Amino acid sequence: MANIFTQWKEGLARTSKAAFGQIATLLGATEISDETWDDLEAIMIQADLGVDTTQDMLFALDERTRREGIIFAKDLRAALKDELRRRLDSPPPLVFSQKPTVILIVGVNGSGKTTTIAKLGKRFTRQGYSVLLGAADTFRAAAVEQLETWAGRLNLPVISGQMGGDSAAVAFDSVQAAITRKTDILLIDTAGRLHTRFNLMEELKKVHRVVGKALPGAPHQVWLVMDATTGQNALQQARAFKEAVKVTGVILAKLDSSARGGMAFAIQKELGLPILFAGLGEKPDDLQPFDPDGFVAGVLE
Ligand SMILES: Nc1nc2c(ncn2[C@@H]2O[C@H](COP(=O)(O)OP(=O)(O)O)[C@@H](O)[C@H]2O)c(=O)[nH]1
Ligand SMILES: [Mg+2]
Fold first, then answer.
1. What is the pLDDT of residues 57-91, one digit of tens each?
2. Which residues of 193-206 are buried (b: 16+ CB within 10 A; e: fewer)?
3. Residues bordering ligand 2, an ion, CB closer than 5 Å
4. Taking the C-alpha atoms of 122, 123, 126 and 128 in order, what is their torsion angle to the nearest 10 degrees?
5. Does ligand 1 come within 6 angstroms of the Cβ of 109?
6. Residue 107 CA: which ligand 1 atom is closest?
């Protein structure tokens, strides 16, 4: 367990230094003043907590300050940590009761889908599941190759189609293969960019529909990969995905490259989606189930 916390701390070093780290300097031995609240607000906004969560946090902290008779700024630290923690939920346990369980991975180009699929594939294999990958991002030249390279390295089977071919057809074939091969988990990679956002969403809807034709009830999960470095912009994109396909959870990739890990709060509060995993690096082992305690420790300590 200790090294999971270490991984969170290392992974969140940037966020901790850039934004939340300033809190340590701010919350010194001085008495709490209006300036303390202004500075706290600025840091939380800068850390990408979002306006709603920031206001809500300030309100709660102010109330606690009165109730608990907190006078010095340094004594706000524990309250701050506690309030942050209360605003994050642990992910629901994942149950793969269907065989195959079909998981559609969606997200904008470059958000980290293909890398995340490799990480998930490795993780689920280690847990004893058989895994199949479907390379349905037929739009981008290198996308299929990239997934095949990962599959080769991790020794995972992959179903791919022609570059520029029909991604829904690849998705359909991969579901059929998963059924025939009695695979436990099928992870389907999808395109993150088409000529327009409208085309992309229509395409994803089609993939979703076709997967359901190949196996009624599928996809069982739709996971949206979000790039933690894109901050609040990513929330807008996420809403579009949520409308197009029934997103069931978020994977927050590149938390390690982000200085603004506060996105995690906005995702839960504003999108109402659970964060299932966090990407803490580029290697296949750099994926952790989202851990609110590890997260808060990582950004604040
Ligand atoms: N540092 C870091 N880089 C990541 C992470 N996840 C993905 N990447 C990198 O982000 C880039 C885009 O990833 P890719 O999986 O190709 O994105 P896709 O276009 O959504 O499939 C690649 O260079 C990955 O190595 C992560 O958790 N941390
Ligand atoms: Mg990709």
1. 999 999 999 999 999 988 898 899 999 999 999 99
2. ebeeeeebbebbee
3. 113-114, 143
4. -110
5. yes
6. 20
